[in-house]
């Protein structure tokens, strides 16, 4: 299916920031995602901040799945002892979009060099919805949202809803 086969559909987004230290006032990454989505006429119907705990992350995922068809997690994707977004979300994905992580790392290398290999960014679909897990830095979310998510979300959802 190429872009010519993208079906008309309404896109709504959920933003879930995974952090034990951020609040709404200092969540520059969550706000950056929100701004980029709104600039591209994608309404944000759910936005929350949860601590780095699998149960909290999954609870937010369940709520987001009821309110949006594009769910973006930011944070908790690294290698530290408390990073567990990937462990929480990967088992819930029905299909993985392997190219998302590959392209994210490829584009990130231009910004941060070889440290891009540490990114565990993943994406996939579940129940016809798109789910993205990206690092929590503002440059990383800006890159992922502007260059990968926004340009392909209608295409991904058209595939995922077949």
Describe this structure in words.
This is Molybdenum cofactor synthesis domain protein. InterPro entries: MoaB, MoaB/Mog-like_dom_sf, MoaB/Mog_dom, MoCF_biosynth_CS. The protein has 162 residues and is α/β, with parallel strands linked by helices. The protein has one domain: 3-Layer(aba) Sandwich (Molybdenum Cofactor Biosythetic Enzyme, Chain A). Helix content is 43%, strand content 19%. It contains 5 helices and 6 strands. It has a 6-stranded mixed beta sheet, with helices on both faces. β1, α1 and β2 form a beta-alpha-beta unit. α1 packs across α5 and α4 runs antiparallel to α5. It is globular and about 40 Å long. The chain starts with 12 loop residues before the first strand and ends with a helix.
In short:
This protein is an alpha/beta fold and 162 residues long.
Characteristics of this structure?
5 helices; Molybdenum Cofactor Biosythetic Enzyme, Chain A; single chain; 6-stranded mixed β-sheet; alpha/beta
Task: Count every helix, treating DSSP H or I runs of 4 or more residues as helices.
Answer: 5
In helices, the fraction of residues equals: 40-55%
What is the arithmetic mean of pLDDT? 93
Gyration radius over CA: 14 Å
Give the biggest sheet. 6 strands, mixed
Beta strand count = 6
What share of the residues does DSSP label as strand, in percent? 15-25%
């Amino acid at each position: 299916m190429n872009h010519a086969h993208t079906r008309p559909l309404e896109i709504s987004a959920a933003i879930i920031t995974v952090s034990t230290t951020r609040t709404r006032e200092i969540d520059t990454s969550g706000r950056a995602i929100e701004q980029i989505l709104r600039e591209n006429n994608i309404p944000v119907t759910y936005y929350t901040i949860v601590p780095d705990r699998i149960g909290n992350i999954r609870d937010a995922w369940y709520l987001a799945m009821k309110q949006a068809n594009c769910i973006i997690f930011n944070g908790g994707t690294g290698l530290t002892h408390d990073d567990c977004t990937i462990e929480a979300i990967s088992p819930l994905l029905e299909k993985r979009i392997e190219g998302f992580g590959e392209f994210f790392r490829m584009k990130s290398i231009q910004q941060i060099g070889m440290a891009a290999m540490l990114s565990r960014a993943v994406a996939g679909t579940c129940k016809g919805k798109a789910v993205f897990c990206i690092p929590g830095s503002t440059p990383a979310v800006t890159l992922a949202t502007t260059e990968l998510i926004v340009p392909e979300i209608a295409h991904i959802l058209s595939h995922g809803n077949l």
